[in-house]
Amino acid sequence: MADLLIRNIRPMGGEPADILIRDGRIAEMGVGLEAEGVPVEEGRGHLVIPGLVDAHTHLDKTTWDMDWHANDQVKTLRGRIDYEREQRLEIGIDPARQSMRHALGLIANGATLIRSHVDIDTRHGLAMFEGVAATREALRDHVEIEIVAFPQSGMMERKGTVELLDEALTQGAEVVGGIDPCGFERDPKGALDAIFGLAQKHGKPIDIHLHERGELGAFSMELIFERTRALGMQGKVGISHAFALGAPDWLRTQALIDEIAALDIPIFTTGAPSAEVPAIMRLKEAGIRMGGGCDGIRDTWGPWGLPDMLHRAEVIGMRNGLRCDFELEHALHICSGGAAQAMGRDDYRIETGGAGDLTLLQGQTLSHALVQRLPRPLVVKAGRVTARDGTVIGKDMP
Amino acid sequence: MADLLIRNIRPMGGEPADILIRDGRIAEMGVGLEAEGVPVEEGRGHLVIPGLVDAHTHLDKTTWDMDWHANDQVKTLRGRIDYEREQRLEIGIDPARQSMRHALGLIANGATLIRSHVDIDTRHGLAMFEGVAATREALRDHVEIEIVAFPQSGMMERKGTVELLDEALTQGAEVVGGIDPCGFERDPKGALDAIFGLAQKHGKPIDIHLHERGELGAFSMELIFERTRALGMQGKVGISHAFALGAPDWLRTQALIDEIAALDIPIFTTGAPSAEVPAIMRLKEAGIRMGGGCDGIRDTWGPWGLPDMLHRAEVIGMRNGLRCDFELEHALHICSGGAAQAMGRDDYRIETGGAGDLTLLQGQTLSHALVQRLPRPLVVKAGRVTARDGTVIGKDMP
User: Fold this and answer.
1) Which of A231, B157, B159, B302 is the most buried (most CB within 10 A)?
2) What is the pLDDT of residues A184-208, one digit of tens each?
3) Considering only CB atoms, which residues of chain B are within 8 Å of chain A?
4) Residue ranges of domains in chain A
5) Where is the Amidohydrolase domain (chains A, B) (predicted)?
6) Which of B67, B315, B325 sits opposite A70 (nearest CB)?
7) Which of B72, B318, B365 sits opposite A324 (nearest CB)?
8) For the residues of B297-365, what is the DSSP string, one character each?
9) How far is B328 from chain A (nearest CA, A)?
10) What architecture does CATH give domain B4-50+350-392?
């Protein structure tokens, strides 16, 4: 927590102002602010938004900055998962080193808050959790990393996985993860009862990967709705991907959307260009909290992606067919303040009392800044400067 | 047409070699080549592919390097077309200046060949054609620009448009364009008879924008097939976008694909992430020629896009769900040699006798180069160096 005065910046693209951060929070906003003894940064008229947020990524998976990983893999979800579980050791994806590289890339490009799913399975035990937890600790002054204990290889067929998740949650994982209860786990009741059981035991929220499409995804959602309501977990259960909401049957998806809104279930999207993604403007209309995420980047699943939430806002924007400025601003919002809200933090706002987590952007307007994607002039976490012009301050790439 | 010796480059990502260009064509390939009096470039082990090709763009539309154009427009195709027709003058999209900026961006990023649709309508006459033709002439040593005389505002309702297209073709437009015969023209027989009539009169090929989806697009395609066959124009009629090929009914689309293959109709795709695009790997299987294009970039239609065919190969690759290296190489191919083939040029090959149009890429492999998207070390058009490390040689931005 630090003090900082940033002069001449444009909050959310508006008129130039100064922002004074004290003890890591926005203490004052106005023109011509003075604060004796407080470090000063010149904002040079750049735009400022709440810190960029990656609300759905996998810090333990990337091959970023390693040799190119040539891929000739099969295309089923299970095939990719099995392949990755072995390739991790084969090509040496060290979870501490790689999560550090991935997170530093995100920070350099303006991120101040990250939710990372981290694989936990009986082949590797807690190795990935420990690696990412080490990065979380090493970067605690730069970025807040929230770890989802994620059973990527499934819990139902691989006995012992639930116990490992339980242990990770005991050791400090913040969120209970899960994966397709039908399509992957093959036992929706068993899988969801286990997930909600862990959440109840540890008093922690849930974030479930749901790649299932159409009616299968809708069925899994209904099972999630039932448990959320029965356990009074409104607002605490999130769904990632939620491809079933991209199905073409408008009436069917509207019924799901209405239920999601009623149960305050946040939706996390990566805007996957080859999948049936939820329409972000439709979910906005319904008042649903949403967060964007870059998902895995350059890993054994696939080659695409950058550790840059403006790039992800572009992917989400293009996938959603957004053209107008107010739409682009919403794409940016779900990769910034909106994503923080979806993660349960309501203080990502450029206003007095808001978090001192800020990212400066270059552009005439917010949309222009999104589309140009120029280096971020300044990134601030709780009043500390963490990156400048695309370079992280105080940490080197391992 | 020039001579050039490039040392130590990796043709299509293979083993290092030298390439000698004489009179604008590849004269010799091998290790340790010497050629007295011929300029030498050091390739420093970079990859080399045939020049990048933008096979579907709109050089006359971009606001690139102008003030940000805020957009609150309606979302129908007709609404966007009407809006643009007036905004061109309102915000001053000078076709000569803007096409120069757009083309210079493409060259800087490795393009050596461009097909640009250019709006021709009764509101602006041949102004856009003349502007882009001026750029074509000014850049003739840097890039080959092929102009499609394109009735963006339709021919059927706006009397006099066919005559303007006729005049543009007389003045040197290389290709006859067209737009949705049903969805936009509202008179498929009238529109297609006019398009094919112009093509027959001028002995020039056709490239029709087909945004129509599902059965409507299939119907328009059938009308195009009938005329192509009746007039013996196999190989001379192309379809851009072809969203109907992305419809989910596999049997229906396969029948269309089979017909397209039989009539040798090249398909041009932009990989639009929010539309039903043709699957490039499926069309490859069917032996159909394909070209990629960046479409309009940062124009009154929408904010997205860059003048960079590696960016477009990424958009196409992500939209098509490509993950494996051989798939990524195909995405790159349809933005390079494959696009040239789709435009009727078969000499975009790194082999003796091939065009001396080359682009160097940075990466361990072709897929790695595509994904990294680093500045192009060298771009060569007919043996002349046109760009180096992302900067055009011999032409400044207007």
Assistant:
1) B302
2) 999 999 999 999 999 999 999 999 9
3) 67-68, 70-73, 75, 273-275, 298, 301-304, 314-315, 317-321, 323-326, 328, 363-365, 367-368, 371
4) 4-50+350-392, 52-342
5) 44-386
6) B325
7) B72
8) -SSSS-S---S-HHHHHHHHHHHTT--SHHHHHHHHHTTTHHHHHHTT----SSSTTSBS-EEEE-SSS
9) 9
10) Roll (2.30)
